Amino acid sequence: MKSKVYHAPRLWYLRANIIEAQDILIHDKTRYPDVFVRAQVGHQNGRTKPVQARNFNPFWNEDLMFVAAEPFEDHLILTLEDRVAPNKDEMLGRIIIPLTMIDRRADDRIVHGKWFNLEKPVLVDVDQLKKEKFSSRLHLRLCLDGGYHVLDESTNYSSDLRPTAKQLWKPSIGLLELGVLGAQGIVPMKTRDGKGSSDTYCVAKYGSKWIRTRTIMNNPNPKFNEQYTWEVYDPATVLTIGAFDNGQLGDRNGEKSSGKDAKIGKVRIRLSTLETGRVYTHSYPLLVLHPSGVKKMGELHLAIRFSSTSLVNMLYLYSRPLLPKMHYARPIPVLQVDILRHQAVQIVAARLSRMEPPLRKEVVEYMSDFDSHLWSMRRSKANFFRLMSVFSGVFAVSKWFSGVCAWRNPITTVLVHILFIMLVCFPELILPTIFLYMFLIGIWNYRYRPRYPPHMNTKISHAEAVHPDELDEEFDTFPTSRSQEIVRMRYDRLRSVAGRIQTVVGDIATQGERIQALLSWRDPRATSIFVLFCFMAAIVLYVTPLQVLAAIGGFYAMRHPRFRHRLPSTPVNFFRRLPARTDSML
Question: Is the previous residue joined to 121 through a cis bond, with omega within 30 degrees of 0?
Fold first, then answer.
């Protein structure tokens, strides 16, 4: 099978603002209609909230958003429905609007509303719908928003950040060259003539351009030696390369098969981690997570070079927003962005699967991390340990300062006292000292900089010592297909984890409510003490230089253990006695 270059369709956000309806007609005149508008674009569906129309002119003013792909093959179908009973809706009218008739905009300019006459439905085929116009009509604002970037991949690994409208595109800043050299040690993926074999091909994705190498049959060490290029518009993007076994060439008996293309592994390379002009030639491990655990499927040999046409323009991008302007002028809710992303992936997968040779749906979904939003105990643990790693520096400094305050090393403690006195006497040196310290750390770490782009890390992914049941849960379908006993066990485990999270969130909320209670007079004696303390502190701060107070506070915090008590301090005791709203919770 030969190599192929694919171009994904250009995606638009379709915004349908359902404003109001006028003069709706219902069969039962003895009640007020409970009406809503249902919208459909292809396989995407949305609906407004039901509104009780006492004057038969319901008002919604709701936005429904969908993903549309060029060339526009689908229509926007709007149906006005009346909820006559629970789980029973009656259609009052319908509008079919071709997407080619909808205006496009590249900014947040106001779109003028239009009135559309509803067509009375008749129970015949949609293509042969007999249309009978009547008085009901719908007020809509419709537009194709080209100022957004339509996310069709995980936001953490975006390969393109440009808006849909081409007139908003900036000039490219460089060129990305990828050489897919070959692979080594590919694990056999199927059996042919009684022997293990694999028919390997690679797929790379960057922006709207997808490439697929030719398929090398029955070779554990395939050599591709193919080169591809992409224009680069932003360095904060990710190139994704995946390896797959072609499941269409033969099954275990060597006959024609229609099975899925099995994933062998993938590599992500962030362009901002590459030095401009340098050729990176490296073998990357292909790691795949199976229900039995993580497995190395082989290695992928790549050659990559990122060439910059304008260093000034590239450095200027670091000061620009990551996403187009419309994402900040009219932001889309996070939950809705995630829903739209899944719709976009399905559209791209459907379009690419119709090309020849087809890029199959499972390949597009794997390259786009289609299921990254699903719950995974392993991924949750990995994110928790990532968070702990981020705060490890804070914990280390806190531990070091505790040792200074405990005088474990008297020489270090004395030196810290001297440095503290210098900073108190010359506060203008504080910020220069901090920035000079960070400059020296950055210069020191330059010698330890990565020589090659990072690859998939099983330790960070928490995939080395994961429990088999957690992996089975991660590979379970949604909705679940496991037995009732297993689902009950996993639900109880999730409840125990959520219970601990609930306790932590409650403790944080308690501390915040205690801070609010300082001035709320929920505890009149505590608030009186705090108000009196604030008055006295104001007087002291007015007459005492701030440097003196800072010096006294620093020496008090680093005082010798001989002058310390094992019991909590007075401010801590006072704070812990403040009331919270936990006693008002059921």
Answer: no
